[in-house]
Amino acid sequence: MRHLMSPLDFSVEELEKLLDLAQDIEANREKYAHACAGKKLATLFYEPSTRTRLSHEAAMLNLGGSVLGFSSADSSSASKGESVSDTIRTVSCYADICAMRHPKEGAPMVACQHSSIPVINAGDGGHQHPTQTLTDLLTIRSLKGRLNNMTIGLCGDLKFGRTVHSLINALVRYEGIRFVLISPEELRLPEYIRHDVLDKNQIPYEEVVRLEDAMPSLDILYMTRVQKERFFNEEDYVRMKDFYILDKEKMKLAPEDMYVLHPLPRVNEISVEVDSDPRAAYFRQVQYGVYVRMALILTLLDIHVD
Ligand code: CP
């Protein structure tokens, strides 16, 4: 039985296969419409979500399966003090696969150690968000035709943004990747990722504060919101929250073939006037998230469709 805790749980070859499957699903939706008939997905969300929960549910429904679950700790027995390990033992009796989001780093890992069904980490604290990474990889590969030889700008809250941490871990395995880390000093990428992931893999990167300075050299600009829920005090969040606002003027500095991605939700960091720019790819990214989660469910359940 396989789980998905980190993007590194799949080798590069396995990832290629998964992305190929997602692209086949995109092109042949009908072929997969009953692939999970009789199967159930449980979504165990201890933290708010729109895309991750609903896209897992849409993915299972598109595959002909059904869904059950809870969308907040308050509406589950976690509010009465039930442990993650007892919850997953229980849910293993109801479902064939589950996706779990939790505010505590490592909670999905605890779940998979006590589970008899595959567990998908749907985001754990400031740690990892592997299904967002699969979404990002599929989006980049679909739009640019490759995952290697690229300059990726990561902008915003690089300290708490788990989507950025997961994406860096996944991309360092490809040839010719270079990062531009765009953040205020207080929200720099954590040292353990700079040293243990970037330096160890000899990945070139530079750190800049001004978005304008980075724009002309980028193939992909990955914007992120400042993670309000991870700040210890409101004052710091208010000071940081509008540090970056991507608007039409800044987009003029970017190459014609640069794409803007964002895991969403956005707050103010991308002005709505950018949405009509053909390089704004964040809502296409949402759609790719459904195809890749369909491919993931099939892979973890070891279901093959021919
Ligand atoms: N991208 C993402 O994780 O969005 P949600 O918080 O809405 O699930």
TrEMBL record:
Pathway: Pyrimidine metabolism; UMP biosynthesis via de novo pathway; (S)-dihydroorotate from bicarbonate: step 2/3. L-aspartate binds at residues 80, 162, 225. Gene3D superfamilies: Aspartate/ornithine carbamoyltransferase. Residues 8-35 form a coiled coil. Residues 149-299 form the Aspartate/ornithine carbamoyltransferase Asp/Orn-binding domain. Keywords: Coiled coil, Pyrimidine biosynthesis, Transferase. GO terms for molecular function: amino acid binding; aspartate carbamoyltransferase activity. It is an enzyme of class 2 (transferase). One of its GO terms (biological process) is 'de novo' pyrimidine nucleobase biosynthetic process. Residues 2-141 form the Aspartate/ornithine carbamoyltransferase carbamoyl-P binding domain. Carbamoyl phosphate binds at residues 51-52, 101, 129, 132, 264-265. Its EC number is 2.1.3.2. PROSITE patterns: CARBAMOYLTRANSFERASE. It catalyses: carbamoyl phosphate + L-aspartate = N-carbamoyl-L-aspartate + phosphate + H(+). It comes from the Bacteria. InterPro entries: Asp/Orn_carbamoyltranf_P-bd, Asp/Orn_carbamoylTrfase, Asp/Orn_carbamoylTrfase_sf, Asp_carbamoyltransf, Asp_carbamoyltransf_Asp/Orn-bd. Catalyzes the condensation of carbamoyl phosphate and aspartate to form carbamoyl aspartate and inorganic phosphate, the committed step in the de novo pyrimidine nucleotide biosynthesis pathway. Heterododecamer (2C3:3R2) of six catalytic PyrB chains organized as two trimers (C3), and six regulatory PyrI chains organized as three dimers (R2). Belongs to the aspartate/ornithine carbamoyltransferase superfamily. ATCase family. This is Aspartate carbamoyltransferase. It comes from Candidatus Mediterraneibacter gallistercoris. The gene is pyrB.
